Amino acid sequence: MSGASVIVRCDGGAEIGMGHVSRGLALADALRQEHAVRVLFAMRGAASAGAAAVRAGGYPVEPIDAPDGADYGNALAALASSHGAVAIVVDVRDALSRTSLEAVRASGVLVVTIDDASDRRLAADLAFYPPVPQVDELDWTGFAGERFAGWAWVLVKREFASGASARGVHASDANPGVSPATDILVTMGGSDPAGMTEFTVDALNLLPMPLAVQVVVGPAFARPNQLVAAIVRSPHAVRVVQSPPSMAALMRASRVAVASFGVSAYELAACGVPAVHLCLSPDHARSASAFEREQIAVSLGVFPGVRPDAVSGAVARLIGDAACRMRMSARALALVDGQGAARVARLVVDRAKASPGVNKSH
What we know:
Structural class: alpha/beta
CATH topology of the largest domain: Rossmann fold
Strand order of the largest sheet: 3-2-1-4-5-6-7
Number of domains: 2
Radius of gyration: 20 Å
Number of helices: 15
Helix content: 25-40%
Distance between the termini: 26 Å
Oligomer: single chain
Order of helices and strands: EHEHEHEHEEHEHHEHEHEHEHEHEHHH
Number of strands: 13
CATH superfamily of the largest domain: Glycogen Phosphorylase B
């Protein structure tokens, strides 16, 4: 597969967040580093934060010029043809249709979907999902590809498979005699349009003990004034960093995290950090239930219906129970080893090498 091309179709920015881009970059890195595959991204918004992150990762961006709500399948097929792509990876929530992906597949290009609940998943050769309950509830009639769902297929960047997690112990609890650099990590994704960051900083004011709080804001964060005001009100020692070079290092240096549910939830699990989740939608809340079921995180439900005292109470319980944190950390590290992107990349390469049309259903 050395020199072969793969197209990753995703978007990211202030409105939709950066989770799709983060997953795409994790897979692109595995394809490039482990299989010498040339990866390019097909994206809307050449000036978006998502496109900037992709370029910063060393990948070219090809524009998808189509109105919102339009099926751009012909443009995607033309892009695949012009670059001689052997596979297209689709991680979007838009009007790209099943019919369009079926046409791409019929041309001999491997079609891969990531966490897709729309009917276009039925046109995929390979469909990958995190361990969420919604997957088995979908109608899979007519699907002739291969479906993979579970903790092993979670897409996170390579940095989340190294350091403390690889040794099987969370850094903040590795030496009980040494305090971690951060008591509470607050991370609400790449954009946080709902304002969960400042809400959480204010909620932590209900905790009487002085705390070291690390706030992370993403590249598409657009609420600096509101966040500054919340920090001014805080009695805690609050530090802020935007788009840090290593999220894994910050996570592993933290005792507890408060995070928006999404890719960050899986990254925290890979780092063995007990987390409190705020969810942007009922669908996210259902997905977060998988973390609660495995006892590796606490979900507070859909924001903005979450009360400040629910956040402070959940954090206080975790901060005050080191034994519970260590159990949660050990469970999380056992579930998420950070190798999901490598597994997906290996399957994409293997199937792209095989003869077109040879698929198994299970």
